[in-house]
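Audit log entry. Action: structure prediction of a protein-small molecule complex. Ligand: zinc ion. The ligand was supplied as SMILES and no pocket hint was given, so placement is left entirely to the predictor. Protonation state taken as written. Sequence taken verbatim from the request; no trimming, no tag removal. Recorded inputs:
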Amino acid sequence: MAVTAALVVGPDRNGRSVAIDGGRVVAEAPKGAARLACGDGEIVPGAVCAHTHLYSGLVRYGLPPPDPPPRSFPEILQSVWWRLDRALDEASLAAAARDHAARALLAGVTTLVDHHESPNLIEDSLPLVVEACAGLGVRALVAYGATERNFGRNEARRGLEACRRVAPSPLVRGLVGLHASFTVSDETIRDAGALARELGTVVHVHVAEDRADVDDARRRGWAGPLERLTALDALPRGSILAHGVHCSAEAVRRAGDAGAWFVHNPRSNESNRVGYAATLSATGRVALGTDGFDPDMGAEEAALRRLAAENGDTRIDGRLAAGHGLVAERFDAAAEPLAPGSLGDCVVRRDDAVVHVVVDGRVVVEGGRLVTGDAERIFALAREQAAGLWARMAELH
Ligand SMILES: [Zn+2]
């Protein structure tokens, strides 16, 4: 793949410029670098959404409410998400992923950490997700969430193989995904850890999102899902644990010390009524995700502040910024955004508005408009695909 040409962003209203060459921020721009003017805007780091689901990108186009209404988190999974993921086909997945990626860029998100499941498209799904992200120019960490909940062990093997096939590129890294402890056997958990080590990557998994995951691990004889994943050697340093709502503070602290990242998803946790992730403050390694909600990290951070205040949690600072450290580990880049050696990603804002977005030294949003695709067409196609998806979902039980 062609390396993007050198670019100088700025100077901004503070007199700051950021030079990018070969996809990394550099101290000094090479001669002849292109220039992106900032006017009275301000250069800031791009936002990282550290846990999301691009496959749910069509939900905004009128997902029909489940009937009867789910009474618990396992029922929400059964009646909504595990029907939606089975109803996905190639066209609806591509439309969902492009819609979500476009909205992320327009909201100033430069990296999406995606966790994907579509049991009828296991082999074909990640290439579509990668194409949507790389095509529109958003950085992405992608994984297929291996599970045994539909077709057993063979389904999990295929999910892990799908992760293996993701080729690294300037914008994309593959991770090894597991759905969650409660839908996989010990063998699959061990296989995921071994594959991540073989590939030099990490595992991305939902952990203790709801009490049901803890109850399942206890029935299997473990103290909890995090303890199970750790004991079965599935969490190489840098692994990404989404939620952790029902992890003990001690387990969170130990996992953080062992190099794991937790991802807090406050809006999703509130909406699913699974509880507030109070024990995450036992480690500093906590990033922020949307879990498939609209990719507006400002809205997610506002929800975090509101819910933290309601729950008396005073140790939440730096979660949005922590995502840079998580992503930098996967790209062998400097963790401090905008510093030399960091990823060549930045955003120019004017007041609250996103003016320009640069990812890997490529201008992907200019003057508030997506330049890598026709946003209106992407949104219209997504709306069109949504109607078919709801119809297919209605036929599934
Ligand atoms: Zn999730």
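Audit: result stored. The domain at 47-331 is CATH 3.20.20.140 (TIM Barrel). Residues 51, 53, 115, 206, 242, 291 surround zinc ion (CB under 6 Å).
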